[in-house]
Amino acid sequence: MKKNSMMRLLLPTTDHQYTFEILIRATMGVKETKSVQVNGKNSENSYTGLSYFQSVGKNPLVYRTIGQQLSLSAHANPDKEAFVFVEEKKRFTYGQLLREADRLAAGFQCLGLTKGDRVALLMPNVSTWPITMFAAARAGLISISLNPTYKPHEIEECLNRVAAKVVVASESFGSKKYYDQFLEILPELGSCNSRKIQCKKLPFLSTIIIDSEKDYLGTLRLSDVLSMPTFHQINKILSEQEKISPDSGCNIQMTSGFTGSPKMVLHKHLSVLNLSFQMRKFELINTTACVPLSFCHMYALVAIIGALCNNSTVVVPNYICDSGKILNAIWKEKCEIIFGMPKLFMELVSKQREIKLDIKNLIAITGGMQCTQELLIQMKKELGLRKLQDKYEDNIGTVGCLTDHLETKVIDNEGKLVPFGTPGELCIRGYSTMMGYWGDEEQTRKVLGSDGWLKTGDYFILESNGYGKIIGRISDIITKGTEKIFPKEIESLLGTFPSIEEVYIEYQINTGVKKCVLLFAFVKGMILSLLKIYMIIVKEECLLLKLLATYE
């Protein structure tokens, strides 16, 4: 029987840095699974039956920096297109990318930046973003991925918390004018005759660089910085690459901040680069990949560097997500791979029904929520999602097997290993874990032990063959008496119904006496009522009858 499937990627998110292989997800309409050979070992735990697994891996880790990898890729394929920015109408090769990155890296040094200094990126999906990120890596600096939708007070907080010395910004993003936002933070900027910033509100910040032809008071134009270094200073960047350690920090990502101020997660070159090399398993070698993801997220960063590691071209369809522009970019640039999330894929399916472009043989790589069975069917029908090789096959209902060179264990509340098949907290140790929360040793110690084990906060079941299943986030568990209600279980169940496209469960504590569970389900563009969902559950005689709209 033929199986049409979709790859799902559990990337190292900003809060819990672990990785499971992209494997085939949710074989459509097929209940049986094939056995999968797991490249790992359990040593003594195979006999004790305790939840510990080590994935050895066939290929060694790559010990180099992002900047060194860019140099290798550019010298091997100087004329290969690295990026296509469709909305900007810009294209540049690997050779051009390296030259521009080194010019900007030398420009940063002319501004007085030294190894370990922080450079913030405040821009949408534009060509300046990867050039700046690679320039920071080549200069041994740490890039800060700021969300381009941030408001002035959020920009101020992030810049201060990471002690950023330089911020590189686009001129605008939609209706946002970034210079106006900087003026709101630093009113004195408008009357500043100097290019150097000295202010109490942002004591660490020395320079604001704006990618614009216009000259804004108190700032530098990006073109000014690019023209600062001499030929000798640019060439010096190459000779300094060996002085930058793969174990040093290269990028800071912001957590969502839903539960307070966002935490600043520091990643090292070794982690980001080797996660990106995993893309070879996803048929990314010598191909063209559409990356409509916001560049400020880890998923996009790994996708971009993954293409770099595998001699592929990244197609960026637009500044901000637009399903029509994405589909047109896939069609015109003949993209073979697309990175995205289930919500984006739903929008693409809906738009493709309208415009009916000739798209076929597409590979989809997704992160975040699990795609529903119905969505996979529609992606096969509308987007030409092609069959993938059996070697990527996943056991139904799991997130796949642990990625190479990592260890995993599942523990109870006391930190002891639980038996295989028993739920507990997932912990990961290996190259992919974060270095820590920038400037927050207390929070870092809560999740990252001195022994290298990182607590992910996921309630997890690990099997002896290395496959695992996420039940939900420990923080999301709803306790009703002695019962534990897992929103993810409810979401997964409802996601199996053909009429339901997307499900969200949210737990809220009201100011009153009662606590409530809010359930949102989208049915072909409509919100399904809680009563109807309850009736579906009753009809299926599911154990999730414990789902209630309100309870004491």
TrEMBL record:
InterPro entries (UniProt xref): AMP-dep_synth/lig_dom, ANL_N_sf
GO BP annotations, alphabetical order: fatty acid metabolic process
Per UniProt, the keywords (alphabetical) are:
Ligase, Membrane, Transmembrane, Transmembrane helix
Gene3D superfamilies reported for this sequence: N-terminal domain of ligase-like
Q: Does the keyword Manganese apply?
A: no
Question: What is stated as this protein's family in its record?
Answer: Belongs to the ATP-dependent AMP-binding enzyme family.
Q: What is this protein called?
A: Medium-chain acyl-CoA ligase ACSF2, mitochondrial
Q: Which organism is it from?
A: Lutzomyia longipalpis (Sand fly)
